[in-house]
Specification:
single chain; 295 residues; alpha/beta; TIM Barrel; two-stranded antiparallel ribbon; 11 strands; 38% helix; 17% strand; globular
Length: 295
């Protein structure tokens, strides 16, 4: 099992360079596999869109919560660390033009020594996606095509370059350098709780990260991922499943149960606090319970 730590954006500390930098350094020292950061390019004040992961329809962040750009934050954390993985969880893909995004992602990955992992989603906040210039209704098709564009631009297509003619994006002879550290490109996982997300993960992704899904519903999504991968001529055993959990409550026994469901990685949420010492203590205690090679 791999253990990722989600940066505690709700604590209003992820834009504080001293706080988040020391948090990431300590997570690395504790032996966690990666640190994951969230994205919202903008949050519409008093948004009317329904947040799908809470019965209230509201996410647990204030509208004015500081949410740094995920790739810029990960680039900063790459400079503070040496080996911990760097992940988005999730990056709202319709917010981005994939040609520009391909360059940004490859740059962070190359400069960090191949430590980047993308977890992407279609997004749920209509106001945010429309503010970024995309159509909300067609965002699923846009995400599918964006993943294809990213992979095309990361591939070694020299000397002729990459060509793509799609519904949303078109280019010919595109040379995008640097390339990611791994010749296969940066891993792209799909975040989401829907059947569409599971299908996307099976057809195009390197894994699925469903949010708030348990029991039979989770098993159904995993089956969809595997079925779609096989239909696309892909090996379903190579696709990872990342599940969420609380860092304060996770136990080896719980890990065993989630592993039996097929989990390869747990993305652990820490208790939001501005007290850096308390946050580090929670990481240390979690690492000790899980038997990680930490301090």
């Amino acid at each position: 099992m791999k253990y990722a730590i989600q940066a505690p954006v709700a604590a209003n500390t992820t834009a504080d360079p001293a706080w988040i930098g020391e948090f990431a350094v300590h997570a690395e020292a504790c032996g966690f596999e990666s640190i994951a950061v969230v994205e919202h390019a903008v949050v519409a004040s008093g948004y009317s869109s329904k947040y799908p992961y809470d019965a209230s329809g509201r996410m647990g962040l204030a509208d004015d919560c500081p949410i740094p750009d995920p790739l810029d934050l990960l680039a900063f954390l790459a400079g503070r660390t040496t080996r911990i993985g760097l992940a988005t969880a999730v990056l709202v893909l319709p917010n981005h033009h994939p040609v520009v995004l391909a360059k940004r992602v490859a740059t962070v990955d190359a400069l960090s020594g191949g430590r980047l992992r993308l977890c992407v989603g279609t997004g749920w906040m209509r106001e945010e996606i429309e503010a970024c210039g995309a159509d909300f209704a067609s965002r699923g098709r846009r995400v599918d095509e964006s993943i294809d564009v990213l992979r095309a631009l990361w591939a070694d297509t020299a000397p002729q370059g990459a060509t793509h003619h799609g519904e949303f994006f078109r280019f010919e002879g595109a040379m995008s350098y640097p390339k990611p550290a791994n010749p296969l490109g940066v891993p792209i996982h799909v975040g989401g709780h829907s059947v569409a997300a599971a299908r996307r993960a099976g057809r195009r992704g390197d894994g699925l990260q469903p949010l708030g899904v348990v029991g039979d519903e989770l098993r159904k999504l995993v089956d969809i991922v595997r079925t779609e991968a096989e239909r696309a001529g892909r090996d379903p055993d190579r696709l990872e499943l990342s599940l969420g959990h609380s860092a304060a409550k996770v136990t080896p026994e719980r890990v065993e149960r989630l592993a039996a469901l097929g989990a390869d990685r747990l993305v652990l949420a820490v208790t939001p606090t501005t007290d850096l010492a308390a946050a580090k203590d929670e990481l240390s205690a979690c690492a000790e319970r899980l038997g990680l090679s930490g301090p």
